[in-house]
Write a structure and sequence with these properties.
Low-confidence stretches: 1-5, 331-339
Number of strands: 11
Largest sheet: 4 strands, antiparallel
Shape: globular
Strand order of the largest sheet: 4-5-6-7
Amino acid sequence: MSVRDEREPLDPRTTSLYDYALFRHGIEPDGRVPRKGFPLPDGPSEPRREDLTWRQGQAEVTDALTPLLLDPDPVRAAGAVHRRVAELAMTGRSLRAHTARLTLTDEDTARRTARQLTRTGTDAAAVGVGMALLIRLGEAEDVPYLKALGMLRGLADTASAALDPLDRQAAALLVIRSRDRSGELNSLTDAIATGDAEAVRSALLSLPDEDRALWLGRRIAEAADLHGLLRARPQDGDLLALTGRLLHRMADQQDSRPEILDYGPARAVYEALVRHADRLPPTQEHRSLLLSIALDLHSGAPVLLNWRPGRRRALLDALDRLLPEAAPAPAPVAEPVPEPALGDRRAEWFRRNRHLPFDRAEDGDRPRWEVVVVHRSADSSAVETRILADGIPLCPALFGKGCGNPPEYLIDSGRLRAGPEPREVQLVEAYCSEGCCGALYVTIRREGGEVVWDGWRGAVGPTPPPYRFDAAAYDGELARAERDHSWCWPARSTARLIGAGLRDRPELTARWELSPYWIGTDWRDPDTAVVHLRHEPSAPPPGTGGSLYFTWQLPGGDGPPQDRAAAALRRLETDDPKAFATFGGGNGELAAALGYRTPPRAAGA
């Protein structure tokens, strides 16, 4: 087949999308691609069919792709697939998902047909099918075509998925362009386009230390070739600090699968950071950052990387030697203490957590529960319970779509205790919600001298095997975790004491037809205790039902946590929280009938 034959458009009435993409990019004065991509050639917008079940959709896509499986001529097969797919009227996302599950009997023929679709196709859906096939079958020669097609509206996601195994930098640039709504990463992508490593370094260092700038941490590292920059500048303190921030962001489990598990040079970048960490100025910010890295290496998702024997332990030992010992806790004072400034808050966090990643040896088959306060930005933090068995963190290993439930839910409540009757416990809920992306459950039961975790529900991948623990060791570790409040700070202690008081005296909220929904600290203001309450009226107005939600915030103030919690519980004896807490939403009809106005959506939500 000649080159000209391969490049003839499948529909001779119009230009191939590949040629169109090159044309649109060529006429742009500054060469910049719009965030959503160049618009597709004139024509109707992408049709959408919402009436198909998954099985029906799979059957229709399989039928449309039959020529791919039966016709050895890639040009003829591509033409038939092009016509059939264009008639399906399915979304690109659905086509990609169904194509990914297609069984291919002849990969070489399928690859040649996919190339014909991507290089000469004129219909976005058909070109998308070709790229979806290249996710499995693509080779280096496909990269220029995928990069060009990724510039078109609606094709970037599939193009980046096909580029991922072939050219991580090109894939990362596509993802950044399509998802960076704020435009804060434009200076970085512009610098990368110049090929000037010093310009790339400067653009990286100018990124703000905020979630909105670093939420694409892995893609930033891949696009900028962070590993290459570190090799060229191994003792660059500013670059090392940014590396730590990006690694910590990639290891975070607040979103879906932790990005660190898909970052190819992760182990080498950890090695480079720890090897030269002494080049970081000894500020409290950098000490806290290195301790966060140590916590990730000790009990977070990075444990699951394919480490050579002993290397992760060696990195932790090196960090232990580098970090200063924590100062002892200050003696209590009777005078009012103002709320801590950010630097003081970091120092206090460091003092409470300095020992955690270093002072506990691997415990064999003994389970471990470690409460970790994760710093996610300068003014926010979150608390998660990390569950380890045989040294493996179970939540990212078995689920990977969120972090472990807080200790108030798992440990303080007694849910992890093994009693005579089996008990199902939710270990982690998806970052969005259980109704959206699920949750991980396990059934805990005592069987003779063992505690057994089995009956897994919601795990990603194969069903996990049962975990068996020595009952005495299990009970001892759980008792230790229940006693250990060293991770806690005053506002969180206040919240825990309120929660314990309401568990002991449920009548305090029941009298107001309320029940505790969640009690903790404000994510954005960790010095504010928060009590979330659910209201389910016993006699709702006719025609209504459901629940309403209220939030009671207790800002940090004077006095020890015990006194502040006791005062909050005393108030519940006499005052209905519905009269002073903030209404947070719920069933609209019930709220209207009871006179509550649904709060306005927060800006940017």
